[in-house]
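Example A, followed by Example B.
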Amino acid sequence: MFKKILVPIDLRHPDALEKAISATAAIAKSENIPVVFAAVSTAAPSALAHNPDELKSKMAEFAEAQGRQHGIDATGQAFFSHDPSIDLENALLKAIDETGADLVVMATHVPHLSDRFWPSNGGRIASHASISVFLVR
């Protein structure tokens, strides 16, 4: 059914990813589908990583650990943006194209009043991606 799954993650909030990663693992295992965990960050030093190579290394380690834990084929990639807080959706849409993913599984939050005016990141990805998007609460 699907050939590759992209899972956007934020390494600063691993606890918020558990349901999305479990759903991803179930789908990936059912048809032996590779998974790409993707993080979007700035190339400038941050609390997450001092430089792009450090973030790439952290993503590779995260993906390897998830692959072992869930028994899936997983890789990690880092994508960079000048300002991820305002450019996250564009960076993720680019990541979809670059990885060749045909399914996105993404953690999201329960809608708040503000989401009526400013959609969530997941909502914007679902609205603009040309592939299937599974939002997990």
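Example B, a separate protein, is given below in the same form.
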Amino acid sequence: MTSARPAGFNELLHFPVRLSLVSLLAPAAHADFSYLREATGLSDSALSKQLTTLQDAGYVEVRRTGRRATARLTDTGRNALNEHAHALRVLLGDALDATPTGETTAVNPA
């Protein structure tokens, strides 16, 4: 079995915390830092680090006004998320729609 990744698979976004963050930002015009922290369960420093990683990639824009910080998904980030989601669908293939039949099939992992 090969581990080839389909086109559009994004290692940066595949990391669960970053995928959660861009998924939270996708439907919003912007999101408060406190909302993202609560939704992900991350500490302030861990959230800041992940947002910085996404910002460095051009996927997220962070704005700070005094003590308040907000984030939004950029067009580049939205495109990367859409491409990654498509790549995951390709990678999973028919597994998403498969209904178990009760039959056992041996899989050779070699």
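On Example B: The chain has a mean pLDDT of 89.
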